[in-house]
Input
Amino acid sequence: MTSPAGWQDLGGAIVTERSRRWRSRAAFAAASGISTRVLDDLENGNRANYLDSTLAAIEATLGWSQGTCRRVVAGGAIKRDMDSDLVRLMDIWPYLSKDARALLVDMAERARRD
Output
């Protein structure tokens, strides 16, 4: 059995990661395919009975490796599946202008073709 504090730790980690990349809880919930109510419960550590598919959706959306949610609940650290430069880019993406985003996408597409 996991402690309520572990679920609160997970909730805090989700809030920290989510708030850097999504402007709203609703946008993150939509991106991960879960309801805002479930996200609210997770972020506030309100319960401990989540489907594995729900936790997997959170992990995938945040770029965490499989099993990270349960690892954090058990007192472990976040493990990422993404390149650190990509994480940095994702963190600043919401703050970029439309023109800056278009420029970065264009550069990435050109690099892929070359």
